[in-house]
Specification:
With 289 residues, the chain is of the alpha/beta class. It has 2 domains: 4-25 and 250-280; 28-247, Pyruvate Kinase, Chain: A, domain 1. The chain is built from 7 helices and 5 strands; from the N terminus they run H-H-E-H-E-H-E-H-E-E-H-H. The protein has helices spanning 4-41, 43-68, 97-113, 123-132, 155-162, 196-203, 213-288, and strands at residues 84-88, 117-121, 140-142, 166-176, 179-186. A 5-stranded mixed beta sheet has the order 3-2-1-4-5, sandwiched between helices. Helix 3 (97-113) links the parallel strand 1 and strand 2. The two termini are 36 Å apart.
Length: 289
Amino acid sequence: MSNLKDLQLQQDSLITINDFFSAYQKLTIYQMQKNRDATINSRAFSEGLIETFIDVKQSIKKLFEKQSNSSSLSFSTLEKNGKRVAVFIAFETKFSTDVIRRSFREFAKKSSENEFEIVITGATAKRLFHEYFPEGMQFAYFDIKEKNINLSENSDFFEHILQFEQVEVFYPYFVTIMHQEPQSSTISGDIPLGDKLLEAERQNRHFFFEPDKKKILHFFEIQILASLLQQKMREAQLATLGARITTLQYTQQNIEEERKKVSQQTVKILRKKDSRKQRNRLAGMHFWQ
């Protein structure tokens, strides 16, 4: 059974740990508040860009196929490898692993069902890859940090993505602080695999392009793709911060429960000591009578 000294040391340690997590939670809340509005307010614009990119690329592709009498996956103003890539965006973290694991499970399922090249970011995703995929399977890895997600500072990552014909991105998505969910999005101007309704809808759309359709497509393939990819990285960052706040809150609740248990044990020991003193006092009074 613990003595009072041990219990006091344990209580002091729990207070110190709780103070640390409380400070970390406040810092994370500040970071989330700083990023949340900009990320959420950009969602509608980003989704509109995706729709416009699909219209532009699919319309120009039809014109290209009509002129060349051929249909090919590889169609671009850039030098492409004609392949599809699945990109999983996550960051190294010790307090947001649940939403990252759930997101990676969706990524692994979709990647296994289709012929995708695989690109992952963050050490957490790298560990999950070795857990979910067979040994020896090839993938490209980029160690992008949560505090440094600007594509301008991760040009090797963006240059690698540019070589693929179709790009599908998987990432954790912020709904509320208490809820994040897996999300995926095709950001290369292509109709998502299996979306027959969207494919049929786009068949009847026709556009005229001025001054030059290739220049317009080139702009979308670089600038718009970069903008969309950057938005998905911000989404992953925001969801990670939200999940971290929730995890830290649960951690503090667990610490508080442990402190209550220690306090209860302390009270028990003190009561036993008081009871023992009372018995000794009564025994002494009886002796002198």
